[in-house]
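Q: What changes when manganese (II) ion is included in the input?
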Amino acid sequence: MSGAGDSVAATIATLPGDGVGPEVIAAAQAVLEAVASRFGHSLIFREALIGGAAIDATGNPLPNDTLALCREADGVLLGAVGGPRWDSPTAPVRPEQGLLGLRHALGLYANLRPVVPHRSLAGASPFRPEHLTNVDILVVRELTGGIYFGEKRLERDPADGRGGEIATDVCTYTTAEIERIVRVAAELALARRGRLTSVDKANVLETSRLWRRTVTRIIGDEFPDVAVEHMLVDSCAMHLVQRPAELDVLVTENMFGDILTDEAAVLAGSIGLLPSASLGAPAGRGRRSGLYEPIHGSAPTIAGRGIANPIGAILSAALLLRYSLGLEAEARAIERAVRLTVDEGVVTPDVSTDPARAASTGTVTGRVVWHASTTGPGEPAPATASDSAVLGTA
Ligand code: NAD
Ligand code: IPM
Ligand code: MN
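A: The predicted holo structure follows.
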């Protein structure tokens, strides 16, 4: 990435992947192009294979060329991986290994998943509209540790005469892994309402007891202004829907974060709306490597029909501008364009209360592009302390 005055030149790797991935990435790229042109930036997009598409083409869900491109790029935008075609339980390679391998190879340990229900989409959620007032949650999910990355074994069970097997997935966390994710979450909490909910299963798991002790120590020693509460994950699954407006920043380990964010998507109205940013350690010179993807999967049953909700991917592109390129005003321009589009009722069937009037992926995208290309009333003022500055990326 190089900056000349206000103008930025950057390379963005796009990894459309499988299912609805290519549809939502085309949408996000169109919006980025519109914003780049409006603000005078030069963005170069370079596409590469990942997931099932990469298995079909090369046998490898994360080809070396893809990883090399992602390492060079200023930001990576990913659609989704996976689908029934590659889902056999005995398959030697799986699309998901490509995504997990990429997160691990780039050291992207902090996965930020904001959940902010939009008022005009309240009808799409099963909750009463007043239940969703003031809901603004940021889930900070640890992304490169825990049971996802522990040793995995499948072996014959010698005690089972019928030839049964023993499957093992090891869950490990180190103090250092917990410390760094807690620091990210606490810094973000300080820039918000100052409340941090740490989610674990400390009544059962040793990893959770280390997690809880480490959270208490780091917050006590380094973040006296953050109010921390500890919550067991089963109880959190309940509180998340019972009193969502009281939650601010939630920090948790890899698998709990995966599950709780799909649940949180119900508050927003559709999983197709939620974006995410996966960040590594700051790399200096204003750069922080980042992978940006909607939290949804490849949605195979709606793929190719032009009805996938592109908003999760479009808002992920906004997070890329904010966290990897330090372009706060541009990120806000995209978020505003999404808000205006949704307020006009231009939405895909998953969040439409009137299926007969639901819009296609292309129509929603076109409207967001139009708003993102225009300055108008409600255009946000430049931020004073942006989220990217909070994380030291600006
Ligand atoms: P999914 O997120 O693909 O779909 C869950 C439900 O949400 C489905 O009803 C789907 O139609 C709907 N949905 C998802 N995205 C949508 C969108 N943009 N617009 C409208 N509706 C949308 O989850 P799944 O069905 O459990 O998984 C399907 C495949 O995706 C699996 O192979 C899984 O491993 C993979 N997956 C990938 C990612 C990723 O790449 N980050 C995330 C989750 C699941
Ligand atoms: C997600 C997905 C992935 C995860 C899968 C596809 C590996 O569910 O990004 O939420 O479990 O992290
Ligand atoms: Mn998930």
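Observations recorded in class: The chain is about 40% helix and 20% strand.
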